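User: For my dataset I need records formatted as: sequence, then structure tokens, nothing else. Please produce one.
Assistant:
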Amino acid sequence: MIKLRLKRFGKKREASYRIVAINSDSRRDGRPLEELGFYNPRTDETRLEVPAIVRRLQQGAQPTKTVQRILEKANVFEQLKAQS
């Protein structure tokens, strides 16, 4: 199963995350199938590739709870419903 989840990077105690599509049994920082965005919790900065995320969700990818909250803030699910 493909999941949309966070991949950690950055310095110690200054973590940032990339939102990636990855196989669910791969390790957290393993090689992703596709990088779909960026999230910085310290500054609350978010950059998303919305068309790619919508395409992955239509293919059946499951977001984790944290990624789902990020996507809800960015109104990605409304765009997904509009395309259906």
